[in-house]
Design a protein that fits this description.
This protein is of the alpha/beta class. It contains nine helices and 15 strands. The strands form five sheets. Strands 11-10-12-9-13 form a five-stranded mixed beta sheet. A three-stranded parallel beta sheet has the order 5-1-6. A three-stranded antiparallel beta sheet has the order 2-3-4, covered by helices on one side.
């Protein structure tokens, strides 16, 4: 009798825990300054490729998500402190980052593009040596700029500020992820007549975006990976690329 009561109580406890997990709303962190991947639209809503991707994941695995905007400079600390569950903010998977957080299956391949004014004639990183380069702080674009000119590379809290300095003649080039470069240089109405993508930096290894979770949070990571796999297999990823990025 005692054994039956114990097992019944255990089953009730497990059921209760599963119900709590099912009711949890996962907080998704974005630095929403990175169009077309994640940005704030005219209606003050966070939108973009990564946002739709997470929403598709949530639908596939049956979870609720809430999108929140965080400053890039503190977004990793917010994750470590438990104020968000997943970072969906065009985070390139690097060995250094993988030491302090866990990453999902990659969901986008990215390259570093060099944005210049239309009259510039830069064709390679050699042409950028000694030039005024800008990028967003702690991004792989900034790491690339630092490799070219060292500590003289100028960092910005938001990539849009670097683009404005480029347009106003305070920089010679801006380095950022290629879909973001294309958005600012080729699509934005105020920029497309003034800016261009001069070239894409040829790296030996591809960069991959991943969704980041707290180190050791296997439960969340497994859910995200299950969702990414489904989004890829069902062709949803291809549809999102076509919608937000084009080529």
């Amino acid at each position: 009798m005692f054994r039956k009561i114990f097992l019944a109580a255990l089953m009730l406890l497990l059921s209760a825990n599963m119900a709590i997990a099912a009711q949890k709303t996962f907080v998704i962190a974005h630095d929403a300054t990175w169009p077309p991947m994640e940005y704030v639209d005219a209606n003050k809503k966070i939108v973009g490729y990564s946002v739709d991707y997470i929403d598709a994941i949530a639908k596939e695995v049956g979870i609720e998500v809430a999108h929140k905007n965080f400053a890039w400079t503190g977004i990793f600390a917010e994750l470590a402190a438990g104020r968000c569950d997943v970072i969906s903010s065009s985070v390139t998977i690097t060995p250094e980052r993988a030491q302090v957080m866990d990453f999902s299956i990659p969901y986008y391949i990215v390259q570093q593009a060099v944005v210049t004014t239309n009259d510039a004639t830069f064709a390679s990183t050699d042409d950028l040596k000694g030039k005024r380069l800008g990028a967003q702080l702690s991004t792989t674009g900034y790491f690339a700029a630092h490799e070219i000119i060292g500590n003289k590379a100028k960092s910005y809290d938001a990539i849009g500020h670097a683009i404005e300095d480029l347009k106003n003649g305070r920089l010679d080039a801006v380095i950022c992820d290629d879909p973001v470069a294309a958005d600012y240089a080729l699509q934005s109405a105020g920029n497309k007549d003034a800016l261009k993508i001069a070239f894409v930096i040829d790296n030996a290894e591809e960069e991959h975006y991943g969704f980041a979770v707290r180190k050791g949070d296997k439960e969340t990571l497994d859910l995200i990976n299950k969702g990414v796999a489904a989004v890829k297999e069902k062709g949803i990823e291809a549809e999102l690329i076509k919608k937000w990025i084009g080529k």
